[in-house]
Design a protein that fits this description.
The complex is a heterodimer of chains A (267) and B (284).
Chain A lengths: L3 E8 L6 H17 L4 E3 L16 H17 L3 E9 L5 E8 L5 E6 L5 H6 L10 E5 L2 E9 L13 H7 L4 E6 L7 H21 L3 E5 L18 E4 L2 E5 L6 E8 H4 L7
Chain B lengths: L3 E8 L6 H17 L4 E3 L16 H18 L2 E12 L2 E11 L5 E6 L5 H5 L10 E6 L5 E9 L12 H8 L3 E6 L10 H26 L3 E5 L18 E4 L2 E5 L6 E8 H4 L11
Parallel strand pairs in B: 1-2, 2-3, 7-8, 8-9
Antiparallel strand pairs in B: 1-12, 3-4, 4-5, 6-7, 9-10, 10-11
Helix pairs in contact in B: 1-2
C-alpha cells in the first residue's frame, strides 16, 4: 500500500527562449524521474517564458509543449507545468497545466490575480474559482493551483484565493511563481519578507504550500541574485524543505496521502 | 504657521472594564499633555474594551466617552480614540468598531468605522462599514492646515477576502497618513503553548511585513498602536500582537517595547503630510 505522494519542485531559469526552457525542463524531468517524483512543479511560465513575445511563434510553443508532454510521459513524471498559453479562442492565459505520470492531461488552472506585467502581456484573468483534482493510484488529491500573486491576493481587490480554495476543500497549494526581483535592494528585501510572511501564514492557518520560483529575473535575464520567493515546502508555518535562493535547485517532499486525499464520495 | 505635527501613541491595556479603561486613558492623556502631543492614537476598542458585554450598559459607555472628551479638552490633547459604539445612523442603531477623532480644543471631527470585521466583531454584533472614508484632521493653533488621514482598525490594514483592499483605496484617495488602531489575537491561538508561540510568531512576521510593505510602496507613514493585554481584555504580560510605533518607507521611525504600557510620539514634517488641494484648472 502506498502511503505517501512525492511532490518535487524545480527552481530553474525561465528565459524568453522556448528552446532553452524546454532543455531546462527536460533536465528537471530527468531529476524528477531519478528521484521517483510523482508530480513535478515548475515556476510560473516555465515553458513559454514570461516575455512579451511569448506567442509570436505559437507553433514553437505548441511544439515545445508536445515535446515536454512526451518526455515527461516517457520518464513517468507527472507535471504541474507553468506556462503562458494561447487558447483556441485566442485568449492569452497564464496557467498551470497538470499531467499524470502517464502523460494524461488532467486540466489547467488559470491565474486569477493579475499583475501589471500580466496586463502588458494581454493575459486574461481566470474567471472562475477552479481547483484541480490530482489522481494518485486509487486516491485523488484536491489541490489549488496558485500562480504568483494568486497566493498574496488578499492585498488586492480580487484577493483571498487561498481562503476560498481552503473553503472548497483543497488540501494542498501548488504555487508556481515568478515575481519581480532585482528592483532595488530595499524593495527586494521588503518584498522577500512579505512574500515569506504570507506563505508561512497561509501554511499555518490553512494548507501546506509547495512553492517554486524562477531563478532568473522575472523577464528572463540571467541573474545570480536571490529569487523573489523561497522555493520549497512550507507546512504549518515552517519550511520542511527549502533550497538555496539562487541558481537551479530541485527538491522534493513526501506528503502523507491521508493528509491530502479527498475524503468522502469521489464521484 | 507650524512646521511639525506631533502624533502620539498609547500602547495601553484595553480591559473589559470601562472604569479601568477610563483611568488608563486619562493617564495616557496626561502623558500626551506633558509631551505636547497634538493627536493621541489609542488601540482598537480602548474605551469600551473588546468584549462581548461592551453594550450591556450603553449609558455607562456614553458617560465614559463624555468624561474622556472633557478630560482631553482640559488637557488640550486631540484624540484618535478607538472604541466600540452604538452609532445612530440612517438605518437605525448600528454597532460599530470605530475610531473617533477630536481636535485638541474638543471639537468632534468625525469617525471612521472598521471596514473588515472579523468573527469576534460579528459575535458582538459589530457591523462592518462598506464605506471607506478618509478623515480630515486640522493641525496647528489656527487649524488653517489639514491632514487627510486614513483610519484603519486591525485587519483593515492587512486585508481579507472579497473586500476592497482598504489601504489601497485610501491611498487612491490621496491620504498622507495611516492611523492604525489595533487589537489582534495574541497568546491564545491554539491550546498547546508551543503552538501558541508559533502562531504568534507567524502573525507577528505577517503584521510586520505588511506594515513595511504598505509604508514602502505607498510612501504613506503608518502610526500603529496595539493593546498590551489579551484581545478580550485579560491581563497579559507577553508580546503585543503587532509592533506599536511609526513606520515610514519600510523602516520603523519609532517603536516601543512589545510588552506593557508604553507611550511614544513622532514629529511629522507637516510638508510631508499636509493636504494640498488639487489645482483648480478653471482659474488657470
Amino acid at each position: 500500500m502506498i502511503n505517501t505522494i512525492r511532490f518535487g519542485g524545480a527552481q530553474i531559469p525561465v528565459t524568453p527562449f522556448i528552446k532553452k526552457n524546454v532543455l531546462a525542463l527536460k533536465k528537471a524531468i530527468d531529476w524528477g524521474s531519478e528521484n521517483n517524483v510523482d508530480y513535478l512543479v515548475t515556476p510560473e511560465a516555465a515553458l513559454s517564458g514570461y516575455a512579451i513575445n511569448f506567442d509570436n511563434d505559437i507553433g514553437e510553443l505548441v511544439a515545445g509543449l508536445t515535446e515536454i508532454e512526451k518526455y515527461a510521459a516517457s520518464k513517468q513524471v507527472g507535471l504541474c507545468l507553468g506556462t503562458l498559453w494561447l487558447e483556441q479562442d485566442n485568449t492569452r492565459r497564464n496557467q498551470i497545466r497538470y499531467y499524470t505520470s502517464q502523460g494524461k492531461f488532467i486540466s489547467a488552472t488559470n491565474k486569477m490575480v493579475l499583475t501589471p506585467w500580466d496586463n502588458q502581456l494581454g493575459i486574461t484573468q481566470g474567471e472562475i474559482l477552479k481547483g484541480i483534482v490530482i489522481p494518485f493510484h486509487d486516491e485523488i488529491i484536491p489541490a489549488a493551483g496558485l500562480i504568483c500573486a494568486d497566493l498574496y491576493g488578499h492585498a488586492s481587490n480580487e484577493g483571498g484565493l487561498p481562503e476560498k480554495f481552503f473553503n472548497i476543500g483543497a488540501k494542498i497549494y501548488i504555487h508556481a511563481t515568478n515575481a519581480e526581483r532585482n528592483v532595488d535592494a530595499t524593495r527586494d528585501k521588503i518584498e522577500e519578507i512579505w512574500l515569506e510572511a504570507n506563505l508561512q501564514r497561509i501554511s499555518y492557518y490553512m494548507l501546506p504550500v509547495i512553492s517554486v520560483d524562477n531563478c532568473y529575473t522575472m523577464q528572463g535575464e540571467k541573474y545570480r541574485g536571490k529569487t523573489a520567493t523561497q522555493s520549497g515546502v512550507c507546512f504549518k508555518g515552517q519550511w520542511v524543505t527549502k533550497v538555496p535562493r539562487s541558481g537551479t535547485h530541485y527538491f522534493y517532499h513526501d506528503f502523507d496521502i491521508d493528509d491530502l486525499k479527498l475524503i468522502g464520495p469521489s464521484e | 504657521m507650524t512646521d511639525i505635527v506631533r502624533f502620539g501613541g498609547a500602547q495601553i491595556p484595553c480591559s473589559s472594564s470601562i472604569d479601568a479603561n477610563l483611568i488608563t486613558l486619562k493617564k495616557a492623556i496626561d502623558w500626551a499633555a506633558e509631551n505636547d502631543v497634538e493627536y493621541l492614537v489609542t488601540p482598537e476598542a480602548a474605551l469600551s474594551g473588546y468584549s462581548d458585554d461592551f453594550n450591556d450598559n450603553p449609558a455607562k459607555l456614553a458617560d465614559a466617552l463624555a468624561e474622556i472628551e472633557l478630560y482631553a479638552i482640559k488637557k488640550h490633547v486631540g484624540l484618535c480614540l478607538g472604541t466600540l459604539w452604538n452609532e445612530i445612523e440612517f438605518n437605525g442603531n448600528i454597532k460599530r468598531n470605530q475610531i473617533r477623532y477630536y481636535k485638541n480644543d474638543g471639537k468632534f471631527l468625525g469617525i471612521t468605522n472598521k471596514n473588515i470585521t472579523i468573527e469576534q466583531d460579528a459575535r458582538m454584533g459589530i457591523v462592518n462599514d462598506h464605506r471607506i472614508l478618509g478623515m480630515i484632521l486640522p493641525v496647528g493653533p489656527t487649524s488653517e492646515q489639514v491632514i487627510l488621514a486614513g483610519g484603519l482598525i486591525c485587519v483593515d490594514l492587512f486585508g481579507t477576502i472579497d473586500r476592497d483592499n482598504v489601504p489601497s483605496v485610501l491611498y487612491s484617495m490621496g491620504i498622507k497618513l495611516m492611523i492604525h488602531a489595533t487589537n489582534g489575537m495574541r497568546g491564545e491561538w491554539p491550546t498547546n503553548p508551543e503552538e501558541t508561540e508559533l502562531a504568534d510568531e507567524v502573525m507577528d512576521h505577517w503584521h510586520d511585513a505588511n506594515f513595511r510593505r504598505y509604508s514602502f510602496l505607498s510612501k504613506v507613514p503608518i502610526i500603529t498602536v496595539d493593546n498590551c493585554y489579551m484581545m478580550d481584555g485579560k491581563e497579559y504580560h507577553g508580546k503585543t500582537s503587532s509592533q506599536s510605533g511609526v513606520i515610514i518607507n519600510g523602516r520603523w521611525a519609532t517603536k516601543v517595547p512589545r510588552t506593557g504600557t508604553q507611550y511614544f510620539y513622532y514629529d511629522f514634517n507637516l510638508k510631508d503630510i499636509v493636504y494640498t488641494p488639487p489645482i483648480n484648472t478653471d482659474t488657470l
